[in-house]
Design goal:
- With 145 residues, the chain is of the alpha+beta class.
- The chain has a single domain, classed as Roll (Nuclear Transport Factor 2, Chain: A).
- The protein has four helices and seven strands, in the order H-H-E-E-H-E-E-E-E-E-H.
- Strands 1, 2, 3, 4, 5, 6 and 7 form a seven-stranded mixed β-sheet that branches.
- A hairpin with a 2-residue loop joins strand 6 and strand 7.
Length: 145
């Protein structure tokens, strides 16, 4: 890996770690400062079982609204033992982790996650959150299947 590639890889990794740290602090402004203006945030796994995105948020305003709702819904947001994988060119960061969340009403929400972040111009341009949709649907009272 060249010096330039190593720097891009480190920058991408720092961005993603900052994303999780800001969410754990419930700091919406810091979370959103990491995203590009044209960011998208996608949940590719649907509770219906269909091969379609469950939720898609396009643009910084929509992503901000979604991230704000997460921070409001959960009083604790922790990612346990995250494992980070960065592509050589620093354009993609993958994260494997387990979530240790607590809803405002005290209900535990423990899911498993794979995240993919696409980095452009030192910002998160795309976020993909792969989590067990059944686990979330049960918490939120959403239909399954």
């Amino acid at each position: 890996m060249s010096h330039e590639e190593q720097e891009k890889s480190n920058t991408a990794l720092d961005l993603v770690k900052a994303f999780f740290a800001a969410k754990e602090r419930h700091d919406l402004a810091a979370t959103m400062a990491l995203f590009s203006d044209d960011a998208v945030y996608i949940f590719p796994l649907a509770a219906s079982g269909k091969q379609e995105n469950w939720f898609t948020y396009k643009g910084k305003e929509a992503v901000t609204k979604y991230q704000g709702q997460v921070l409001e819904r959960f009083r604790q947001i922790k990612m346990l033992e995250p494992k980070y994988f960065v592509t050589t060119d620093g354009s993609n960061v993958f994260v494997e982790s387990r979530g240790d969340y607590i809803a405002q009403d005290g209900t535990a929400y423990n899911n498993v996650y794979i995240f993919k972040f696409v980095i452009r111009d030192d910002k998160i341009a795309e976020g993909y959150e792969y989590a067990n949709p059944v686990t979330y649907a049960k918490l939120a009272g959403l239909p399954i299947g």
